[in-house]
Automatic annotation (TrEMBL):
UniProt cross-references to InterPro entries, sorted A to Z: DNase_TatD-rel_CS, Metal_Hydrolase, TatD-like, TatD/YcfH-like
Name of the protein described by the UniProt record: TatD DNase family protein
Keyword tags: Hydrolase, Metal-binding
Cited Pfam families: TatD_DNase (PF01026)
Source organism (scientific name): Syntrophus gentianae
Length: 255
């Protein structure tokens, strides 16, 4: 059993062969995919895809790149979407100070607002953090919500991972763990208990070895899980089952 805890099946990269991509994931042993909306239109699309495929679930939220577009109606629409069947989380939300496609002060304000919305909706959160570790941890530490959720595509060091675990979050490991220069991430994987890990593709991005350079897809989460199992010194099947069970627990998925 495996779960791809973070993909973007709603993105146009999959418009030509989405059904085939989902079928290949199933053939590879991926029992569920969580597809993650990043703006309002993609959130609608993610929910529609989840409704159309038994193995797909959805998360809805406004990505930090897109928060500059939030208007008076956005959160009302997000609340409506969050109530749809098979919506299992609110996200991905957070901060991205690497590309700064939305102004930093806007990102921080909207992140706080979306944390409060997730609390009101009683949904776990999926956090995007890129080059904004301190600010992300400050906001999560001061937030009065349940702190149920996932740090997606983890890019910090073990000290940060330890703080995330202490706050109650899972750490999600992407395909970058297979890259030659990903020693910091592999150190995190070696030290974080398997019971606190998820695996993800972030498809169509971050394709793991041996397919690096090609479009990523959920079937390839197997290669991430294999590398994580190798680092932790446990059988692949055991690691796959533990991380799938973790995803089922946080997202309330029944398989």
């Amino acid at each position: 059993m495996m779960i791809d805890s973070h993909a973007h099946m709603e993105m146009p990269e999959f418009d030509a062969d989405r059904k085939d991509v989902i079928a290949r994931a199933k053939e590879a042993g991926v029992d569920a995919i969580v597809t993650i909306g990043t703006d309002l239109d993609d959130c609608f699309k993610a929910v529609e895809i989840a409704a159309s495929f038994d193995s797909v679930y959805a998360a809805v939220g406004i990505h930090p790149h897109e928060v500059k577009k939030i208007d008076a109606q956005t959160y009302d629409q997000m609340q409506e979407l969050a109530a749809r069947p098979k919506v299992v989380a609110y996200g991905e939300i957070g901060l991205d100070f690497f590309k700064n496609r939305s102004p930093r002060e806007v990102q921080i304000r909207r992140f706080g607002e979306q944390l409060e919305l997730a609390k009101d909706l009683n949904l776990p959160i999926i956090i995007h953090d890129r080059e904004a570790h301190r600010e992300t941890m400050d906001l999560l530490s001061s937030w009065k919500g349940s702190r149920r959720g996932v740090i997606h595509c983890f890019s910090g060091d073990y000290a940060m991972a330890r703080k995330c675990l202490d706050l109650g979050f899972y750490i999600s490991i992407p395909g970058t763990v297979t890259f030659a220069k990903a020693d910091k991430l592999r150190d995190v994987v070696s030290r974080v208990p398997a019971e606190s890990l998820l695996v993800e593709t972030d498809a169509p991005f971050l394709t793991p070895e041996p397919f690096r350079g090609k479009r990523n897809e959920s079937a390839y989460v197997k290669y991430t899980a294999m590398r994580v199992a190798e680092i932790k010194g446990i059988p692949f099947e055991v690691l796959a089952e533990i991380t799938a069970r973790n995803a089922c627990e946080i997202f309330k998925i029944e398989l």
